[in-house]
Amino acid sequence: MTDLNEGPAADQTGPEAKPPRAKTHGARPRGNGGLARKRAALSEAKLLEFAELLFFAYRDFTSDPDAILKDFGFGRAHHRVLHFVNRHSGLRVADLLDILTITKQSLSRVLKQLIDKGYIVQQAGASDRRERLLFPTDKGRALAERLAAPQLVRLSEALKAAGPGAEAVLRRFLEATITAEERPKVSSIMASPAPLKPGGKD
Amino acid sequence: MTDLNEGPAADQTGPEAKPPRAKTHGARPRGNGGLARKRAALSEAKLLEFAELLFFAYRDFTSDPDAILKDFGFGRAHHRVLHFVNRHSGLRVADLLDILTITKQSLSRVLKQLIDKGYIVQQAGASDRRERLLFPTDKGRALAERLAAPQLVRLSEALKAAGPGAEAVLRRFLEATITAEERPKVSSIMASPAPLKPGGKD
DNA sequence: GAAATAAGTCAACATGGCTGACATAACCGA
DNA sequence: TCGGTTATGTCAGCCATGTTGACTTATTTC
For testing the chain B interface, which of A13, A18, A44, A121 should be mutated: the one with the most B CBs within 10 Å? Predict the structure, then answer.
């Protein structure tokens, strides 16, 4: 928390209901939610709108692949795994765990299904043979691309609609939205849209 | 699909593995993934980067409230419900179903918990007494704000980092990312950061 | 008064998270 | 070379949250 501190968490857990017809949303007489003095800071209300828009945008962003996945008996978890294996083929199981922020038991379940059904193959690492490097099969690539297609259309159109300069702005926004400590990791992952340089863990 | 059509889904489900060391990511000799001629269209690779950044950004965007929710025995589903009830107090159950795109049975479970624990109250509609309008209690407002706080900080900083004009660009981008048919509904919902005008369903 | 609508409920099931415990193979340093 | 660490896999069970289908109740509407 760097800003906004006295905004939320200020009028704490009052007693009880006082049922309906609440004033706009909180007892907040200050005009700008506590972050007014910082010249450029947005009002809390505007930030909340962005939070909502982000929710709706992401909800719909995932809807097309979700629909396709059902035909394959897969879920969103499979999509995530397949996407990253396809885009960064040769990554290790540990890399994937780090990207997805899930446990290896959770990953194991979906990864095994993707392997069993022939969408992903494993290969022992060259330098370290304990590592299992992951690669998409042709079938895996085809599915990954089919899942990505509607998302790319969506993004392409949204960027166009956002107007000139949108690309740079959006990139900076998204990167800054990622937790600071995660950024180097994300950069490192995204820097290899190809076989990850072996041993390039961190 | 408006563009990008012959890009993905082109080289379909080939036979089998041909294991590792895949060329960058697909058999795609065309320089610009099939959407080159449209002067301003981004390359497939760049669009994929945006897709990944969106994933990472959203992953981290939800991480702070998720951590807080654990202390309350709630999950992300509770957060979503509480957020929308707080921001758009007085909405109906049907509105919520529409926003969240889940079944009423799914909603019922988390909503009941939020009601039982005193975060949300219901009130019969004035004009139509079948409707159950939803309102946050003081306790509910407090929790909603506590959950929102880190997200607002994150957004505020990311918008600052994105530079001048980011606000307008981002708004256009997010709105355009929402499925076209959903946009009127979303606008209508977002237009009421207060008690929804009764009967204002669609 | 009958049909349609808003909401709630019961039951069963699927997906994808989680924890904990433990096994195997390979690497690495003393 | 042995012993500790690391990378991965696996078994077992639990929880959160999504699904379908069937049905009830209250209320509005025609």
Answer: A13
